[in-house]
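Batch manifest, entry 17 of 40.
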Amino acid sequence: MTLEDARALDTTDPLAAYRDKFALPEGVIYLDGNSLGALPKATPAALADVATRQWGDRLIRSWNEGWIDAPQRIGAKIAPLIGAGEDEVIIGDTTSTHLFKALVAGLRSNPERHTVLSEAGNFPTDLHIAEGAVACVPGARLKVVAREDLAAALDGDTAVLLLTHVHYKTSDRFDMAAWTARAHDAGALMLWDLSHSVGAVPIDLNGAHADLAVGCTYKYLNGGPGAPAFLYVAKCWQDALASPLSGWMGHAAPFAFEDAYRPAPGMKRWLAGTPAMLSTAALETALDLWADIDQHLVATKSAQLFDILAAAGDALGLDCVSPRDPAKRGSHISFRHPHAYELTQALIARDVIGDFRDPDILRLGLTPLYLSHEDVWRAGEILRDTVKTESWRDPAYSQRLVVT
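Output type: C-alpha cells
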C-alpha cells in the first residue's frame, strides 16, 4: 500500500470524524490504546463539572441527582457494545473484583462441581484471581491447560470455564458461541473476560447464550486510567447466583441500615461499595461517544489497519503471531522479535507508541476511532526504517522501564 492509497481510505472512512473528539499529542502515532485509551476531549469538562458543581455546589444532594443510579445507568450504555440487555450490566469496582465475584458465585452455584478451567498464558490477573477464588470455596481447584487441550479438559467436574475472548498478547480470538456451547454441553458455566475485545470487535453475549462476563473500560472504551469495570450476568442467572461480596450497595434496602444482609434483586445485588464518581463520570462521558457507532464499521476499519501493518512486517520478515483472519483476532497486531523490548523503545523515541510483552513481543494496538490509515501507514514506514537500520541497538533502548 502507498501513502496515497492510505489517504484515499481516509477520505471514505465513516469513522474519520471521531478522531477530532480525542485529545492526541501532535506528531504522536498512538498504538497503545489497547492498554490505555486516548483522552476524549469532553472528559476534562465533565470531570470539572463533577468536582465544582456536583460535589462543590450540590454536595451530598448529588447522590439523589444521578450518582446513586450511575452503576446501572452506565452499565446500560455498555450493554449494546457487548450484546447484552440493559438490565444485565453494571459498572463499578475493577475487572479483578468482578472476576472474583463471578468465579466464586459460579463455584457455589453447583457444589457437585469443583473445577475452574482456564487457559495457560491467560492474562495473569485472571489466573491470579482464579487462584484466590478457588481458595475461598472448599474443594474447589483451578485447572490450567494449553489452548489446544481445553476441549479435552472440559469435563463433568468443570463448574466454570474462564476464557479471555481476545488474547492480550497474540490477539487470538475465541469463537464465543462455539466455546459457550461447549461449556454448556459439559454442564459448566461460561465466563468471558472481554477486556481486549469490547470496543474493538463485535460481541454478542446474548446471541452466544453466555452466562457471565467481565471487562475493563480504560482500553478501547477510553474511560481513563483505572476506570470502573463492568460485570454482565445473564438475566436467567441474576437471582440464582449470589455475590460473595455482600456490600451495602448490593443490599435490597441499603438505607434501611439493617444488620443482616438481604441481596437486592437483579444486577443491583452485584454492587458492593460506594461508586467512585470522578472516574465514573469520566467513563460515562467516553461511552457517550459510542452511542451511534456501528461495531461492524469498527471491525472493518480494524481489519484495514491490521493489513497495513502486517504488510510492513511481512516486508521486513517479521514473525506476525496474530491471526491473519480478522474473524479470529482482536484489534491489535503482534510481532515476535528477539529484541522486541529495544525495538519498542526505539519506536517510542520516534513517537510511535506501542508496547512490549515479555519475552519477545512487539504489540501494536489498532484503535479505529482515532487512528487514520495514514497514521498506521506512517507507523509501518518508521517500523521498517527502525528494523532495517537497526537503530534499536542504541544502548539507551535496552534500559528496562517499569511500564512501557
